[in-house]
Here is the input.
Amino acid sequence: MIRVIFNQKGGVGKSSIAANLAAISAAEGHSTLLIDLDYQCNSSQYLLGAEQPHEENTIADFFSKSLKMGGKRSTEHYITETSFPNLHVIASHPELAEIQSRLEAKHKIYKFRDLITKLTDSYDRIYIDTPPAFNFYTLSALIAADTVFIPFDCDDFSRQALYTLLENLEETRDDHNENLDLGGIIVNQFLPRANHPQRIVNELRAEKLPLFNTLLGSSVKMHESHEISTPLIYMAPNHKLTLQFVELHQEIEKKRRKKR
Here is the structure.
């Protein structure tokens, strides 16, 4: 299963969600790969800490090589082991931002899908973290994916951006990947005692949008896990937010089994 975590609005917890879902998948025994396509490198830093790979071992090198004749590397060259069992990363690099316009000019939009095709036999689950923009890298991920999950925080700006995002996904499905499934909307940083977030959630559900039942709360534990580069399932397995992530992961897997 190839799962993209995407929202073109920043600050919605996209990288935290991608990394923690991947970590839970790995902790449950699934061979799991996280690919970081965001040149801010947040999920790479989260899972690998200070031991970031050299540029030639990152996804940036893969895309750079696609601009040149010859010199291709094996897919294993880009994969970095984490300190967590069953969990690997293809890390990002700031160079992605520098080469984006050249990739667009050369129409390399399907190269990433070719890479993913070579990886699917080696991994049970592949998670893809994307930039907070509907750009070349995001579209590359959506073309290669089976499913897209949308992180969402409960404010009116996010709500308007959500409608635009859903339109973009429908266009991507029509033009590039008819099998792309909207796996669901992940409500993040939810404040259960506040009226405004609860009202927005209720209204989105009334509109029949596919919100997951699990609502992820906000906790300082997430920031602590970032600081020590340790996903919640390993740092605080019994914490409330960790258990919410586990519940969300169970929802995702249950939906997958129903569609088989």
Notes: The first strand starts at residue 2 and ends at 5.
